[in-house]
Amino acid sequence: MANDDPKVSRSSTRSRVAAHVLAQVSSDSEMTAEVATHREADQRALDIVQRTVVSLLVLVMMGTVSAVLAIYLVVSGEPMARGDVIGLWIMTGVVGLICSVTMLMINRRRPYHPLVLLGLLPMAFSWYWIFGPGA
Question: Mean pLDDT, to the nearest integer, of 40-47?
């Protein structure tokens, strides 16, 4: 039998509305958590892309200077004083070290990380032709 009492009818309607609102709030909080998770993932991906692009720019701009100095010392046809050659050779290493330290710091690593020695590669490659047996 149907209950015709208006107080009971209102209270059951209120409880149904309250249950519906509670379910809606619960699903909204789940959606908010899901959106926040996606937002954090997108932010991390963007951060990685930005660090990669800036690192590549540093590598191209500063690494090229170091490599060109090393190549110039090896293939230059004009005679240079021994002190000039040594000065340019040291400059090759310093620019390479600055480049590698900059890249490490962009990628949130310590500036004294062992990978900093990769900046000395142009200097090491040119050593044989500058100071080797035929020099």
Answer: 84
Contact 59, 99 (CB under 8 A): yes
Indicate the residue type of 82.
Answer: R
Q: HSE-up of 38 (CA within 13 Å, CB side)?
A: 6
Read off the pTM: 0.68
Cβ atoms 105, 58 nearer than 8 A: no
> What's the rounded Cα separation, in Å, for the pair 121 and 76?
19
Rounded CA-CA distance 1/6 in Å is 15
Over its C-alpha atoms, the chain yields an Rg (Å, rounded) of 33
Cβ(116)–Cβ(64) below 8 Å: no
Q: Taking a C-beta distance cutoff of 8 angstroms, is the pair 95, 62 a contact? A: yes
**How is residue 107 annotated by DSSP?**
T
The answer to whether the Cα torsion of 98, 99, 100, 106 is positive or negative is positive
Average pLDDT over residues 61-84: 89
A 10 A CB-CB count for 113 gives 14
